[in-house]
Amino acid sequence: MNYLQAENISKSFGDLLLFESLSLSVNEGQKIALIAKNGTGKSTLLSILALHETCDTGAVNHKRDLSIAYLPQNPVLNEDLQIIDQVLYASPGIAQAIQSYEKAVEMQDSARLETAMAEMDRLNAWDYENRIKEVLSRLKIINFHQIVRELSGGQRKRVALAQVLLLQPDLLILDEPTNHLDLDMIEWLEEYLSASQLTLLMVTHDRYFLDRVCTDIIEMMDKKIYRYQGNYQVYLAKRQQRLELAQRKVDKANSLMKKELDWVNRMPKARGTKAKYRMESFAELKKAAKKEYIPEQEDIQIESLRLGKKVLEIDGLTKSYDDLLLFKNFEYKFQRLERIGLVGPNGVGKSTFLSVISGQIPPDSGQAVPGSTVRFGFYEQVGIQFNPSDKVIDVVKDIAEVVHMGGGRVMTASQFLDYFLFPPDVQYNFVSKLSGGEKRRLYLCTVLMQNPNFIILDEPTNDLDIMTLNVLEDYLLRFQGCVMIVSHDRYFLDKVVDHLFVFDGGGVVRDFPGNYSIYRDSRELELEKSAAKASAKTKKVKSKTDSPKTRLSYKEKIEFEALETEIAELENEKSLLEEQINSGECSSDELLEKSSRIGEVLRLIEDKELRWLELSEYEMK
């Protein structure tokens, strides 16, 4: 069933054309990812499809009564609400049902109460607050009554993500949902969306997420749409085939154009009008030969100061804020060419660690002593602020006109920008016209072109597109210095780092020899072993023999017989409570008390029925 159809839509801002005459569809059950370079209008397209923005031309049509939930990159929340109310009021139907129920109880109106309870049943709203708390807890939001205005940008994004997940819409539209999530949260969201029956349209740069969740990938390139059925691995293979085919067509057109050019040059002027069709053919060949394609990326290696024998020595490094201990007595001696990833939950001190070892923040005790040859290049989460009236090329030229490469080669500022996916026409744009992702990419260029020999990257993968990530990964793998990275991008960590500093919290930092996937497998194995030991210990306590249980013990037989009576009594109590609530004779306090008791009775009935079924398996033998 078709959920959404966009036909010939176009969008521009002033003289900046984002896309033109795009058409795409979303069908029930599909999980689609949108891939494109920063600045090509991905976020704008999602906003248009969610009907939060209008297109300049074309139309977007939705299935009648289609419910849509949309998570933008920068969600707008009510500053004055508590978190739990913010999430609750995002589900107006359930919020209305709860309010109606509470009002009916307060007014002691049995007719309204009966209607309100039926609506609560229909919407499955009795335990909605508990479901809110469960999802928020999964997203590491534990102070449910904190005021929204007090939240950080990352916390706001997670609250908004909880809202859209709890809405359980027909179509879920997500713009960079993994930003500001730690690795455990990303894996939970990945599993949730994979198992969900939701239809999904999203933008994300997380390539494992793409591989494990998506059924289709749409690529925006050259203001056009290319569609691939399959996950990220399938997309890479099919995309390469498409580009190779396009390149062969360009090569063929070039070859034919050379022959036509030779004919045109030799053609007598007097016969020109008789060969009009050949001239028209020549014009078409020129057009085909100039078609854009993605060339092979040039391999570059920026020359950096040679690291001496001493790189960076960390001795007894300790840092805390108030009662929060981030790291304690950490020791490490860096070697040349090390590439280290920092992993751990949000708030355990990874970014602070980078700031301390680079000398930007003093430690409480201990020291981090760099060698005399070390030159840091620090890409921070909050980067430098550009002058919006500057042009892109001028931002880079203010740092250096040329970038020194290995072997005495140099690369101009323009060539360096081109390598990091700023083509010449974009280089002369004003910074104010760049997207958020393009500004982050420009900031990355300003850090790398200063020829550091120890690169520190704090969340470089946030807001960068997949194409830029591939360029950055290639650059780091060729880099002849040390690298330290904080990232929640598992694919990026697996591809780039040699080993990890694992921040466990409570001041504990461990050195783990391997990339993220190796660490993840190791952690799962440890958890399985711990669970197996606990299970074996429980079994040993329960029984000293290995023979399977075949019959009930005397106590269990007594329990089994008692359960039948207890369940019947609870069913009677439930019926009595329902009669009392509907009688119209209860006070408001009594109504609240009896409504609360019904919920408790239902839980007791469920628990006891499950226990009865468990014991009945042995009683029947």
Overall pLDDT: 83
CATH class of the largest domain: Alpha Beta
Amount of helix: 40-55%
The CATH architecture category of the largest domain equals 3-Layer(aba) Sandwich
How many β strands by DSSP? 20
Class by helix and strand content? alpha/beta
Largest sheet: 6 strands, mixed
Spatial arrangement of strands, main beta sheet: 5-6-7-3-8-9
Helix run count: 20
- Low-confidence regions: 292-298
Number of domains: 5
What's the CATH H-level superfamily name of the largest domain?
P-loop containing nucleotide triphosphate hydrolases
The geometry reads as: globular
CATH structural fold name of the largest domain:
Rossmann fold
Distance between the termini: 49 Å
What portion of residues belong to β-strands?
Answer: 15-25%
Radius of gyration: 31 Å
Structure description:
With 621 residues, this protein is α/β, with parallel strands linked by helices. The protein has helices at 42-49, 83-89, 92-107, 110-122, 128-138, 153-167, 183-195, 207-213, 232-266, 276-289, 350-357, 392-397, 413-419, 424-427, 436-448, 466-478, 490-496, 516-542, 554-582, 588-619; strands spanning 2-13, 16-27, 31-35, 57-62, 68-71, 171-175, 199-203, 216-221, 224-229, 312-321, 324-333, 339-343, 365-370, 376-379, 402-404, 410-412, 454-458, 482-486, 499-505, 508-512. The protein has a 6-stranded mixed beta sheet with strand order 5-6-7-3-8-9, sandwiched between helices. The chain has a 6-stranded mixed beta sheet with strand order 14-17-18-12-19-20, sandwiched between helices. A hairpin with a 2-residue loop joins β1 (2-13) and β2 (16-27). α2 (83-89) packs parallel to α6 (153-167) and α9 runs antiparallel to α10 (276-289). The longest helix is centred in the middle third of the chain and has 35 residues, at 232-266. The protein is globular.
